[in-house]
């Protein structure tokens, strides 16, 4: 099997991996951008929560770029990396990649920057990583 990559893939394992399904598509079979964005938010939220050692909330989505369409049946993977860290916030760069349905072609389809704020039990901002692990 020869896998064809359209550009250099991120290192590491994906933060999220799922299959694009018919319920996530318009009548022409293109996956809704909002569905892809939600997968990226879920993926980067989990990544940010791990870094923050606790609860985080999405406060901004910046620089969202849709490079190529996603189709029904594509295997979608989201890769996350820390872009910036503040006292109470963390910005995560997310790339969404697909392995095309019934194909060995792998392509980057979307990328964006998601910013999260670490919060305590009542929703007040707290320093990133200030939660004690048990």
Describe the structure in your own words:
There is one protein chain. The mean pLDDT is 91. A hairpin with a 3-residue loop joins strand 4 (75-85) and strand 5 (89-99). The protein has one domain (4-118): Hotdog Thioesterase (Thiol Ester Dehydrase, Chain A), CATH 3.10.129. Strands 1, 2, 3, 4, 5 and 6 form a 6-stranded mixed sheet that branches. It is mainly beta and 134 residues long. It has one helix at 33-52; strands spanning 4-5, 16-19, 56-66, 75-85, 89-99, 105-118.
Short description:
This protein has one helix at 33-52, and strands at residues 4-5, 16-19, 56-66, 75-85, 89-99, 105-118. The protein has 134 residues and is mainly beta.
Please give the CATH architecture: Roll
Number of domains: 1
Give start-end ranges of low-pLDDT stretches. none
Question: Main sheet?
Answer: 6 strands, mixed
Succession of helices and strands: EEHEEEE
Integer average pLDDT: 91
* Rg computed from alpha carbons, rounded to a whole number of angstroms: 16 Å
Share of helical residues:
10-25%
Which CATH first-tier class would you pick?
Alpha Beta
Bulk shape: elongated
CATH superfamily: Hotdog Thioesterase
End-to-end distance, in Å?
Answer: 45 Å
Key words describing this protein structure:
Thiol Ester Dehydrase, Chain A; 1 helix; mainly beta
Write the layout of secondary structure elements.
Elements: E1 4-5, E2 16-19, H1 33-52, E3 56-66, E4 75-85, E5 89-99, E6 105-118
Parallel strand pairs: 1-6
Antiparallel strand pairs: 2-4, 3-6, 4-5, 5-6
């Amino acid at each position: 099997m020869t896998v064809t990559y359209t550009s250099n893939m991120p290192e590491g394992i994906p933060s999220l991996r799922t299959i694009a399904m018919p319920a996530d598509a318009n009548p022409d079979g293109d996956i809704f951008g909002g569905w892809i964005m939600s997968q990226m938010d879920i993926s980067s939220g989990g990544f940010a929560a791990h870094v923050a050692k606790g609860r985080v909330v999405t406060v901004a989505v910046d620089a969202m770029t849709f490079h190529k369409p996603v189709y029904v049946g594509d295997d979608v993977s989201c890769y996350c990396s820390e872009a910036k860290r503040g006292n109470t916030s963390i910005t995560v760069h997310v790339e969404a990649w697909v392995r095309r349905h019934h194909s060995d072609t792998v392509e980057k389809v979307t990328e964006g920057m998601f910013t999260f704020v670490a919060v305590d039990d009542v929703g007040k901002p707290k320093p990133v990583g200030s939660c004690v692990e048990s």
